[in-house]
Sequence to fold (308 residues):
Amino acid sequence: MGKAFVGIDVSRDCLDVYVRPLGNGWRVSNTPQGRALLVERLTALDPELVVLESTGGLEHAVAWALQEAEIPTAVVNPRQIRDFAKAMGRLAKTDALDAEVLARFAEVIRPEPRPLMGEATAQLGESVVRRQQLVKMVTAERNRLKRASPKMRLRIRRHLEWLEEEIAALKLEREEWKKRDRLLRGVPGVGPVLSATLLGCLPELGELRGKEIAALVGVAPFNRDSGHWRGKRGIWGGWATVRAAVYMAAVAATHWNPVIREFYLRLTGTGKPTEVALVACMRKLLVILNAIVRVEGRGDTTPLPLDP
Fold:
């Protein structure tokens, strides 16, 4: 028998496990004891790959336990799994069926295991996401303030004060990332929000090549061709939280970063639409930051090419 491929469907209370090609499955509780039992059984099985869906943080404890046991694990985008299930004709959805689909995805697609973020990094990422949520609430409340009656304005202003206090109190503690934070923020156009977002939400930064990190974030253009027809290249997928922060930084960089500004002006000067030029600047800025972190991680100053 060849190597085993495992799918784990993670819910708040349970972990549903399915193993291919053995074709057997089981369930354990999503508790420290249940995760310890899971690791014990999988260690004995010695799987080629374990696949879990990204489920908004519920998967972290399981993924960390597997990583600590040196079991190869990939956490994948749920949309990939649903598209894969639809392609298989699997329209029904239960925890046990999802675990089986994940196992088959592991066997057929074999996504590459990536370094998982540690608990401290996950907490930083959670802080970044929470800050973005609060900023959106502030924007919404300010818009409501313009249309509100005098009595309601008082309530909205009180809520705005509370939201702004929460944003101010949500300091992004980065004690163990100070060196990397200084490196990132040394690039013109990169501020504290983008730095914290990259550190907290993109643990792959510095671990991948330029094209790979651009595709992961969703700023790499993909072909849209068929026969003799050549469509416009476009970006798709990726991490929306990271992409939004990179976009704002790229806008600033077109004014204050000489390299990005020259690149932007050259593109727009040849007739590229503004948004297309900005996406290209996002990619270039991200590739530069990725190269900087790679050099820092290698502990030397050997220049790396900005493009693979």
The domain at 5-108 is CATH 3.30.420.40 (Nucleotidyltransferase; domain 5). The longest helix spans residues 119-147. DSSP finds twelve helices and seven strands in the chain. The longest strand covers residues 14-20.
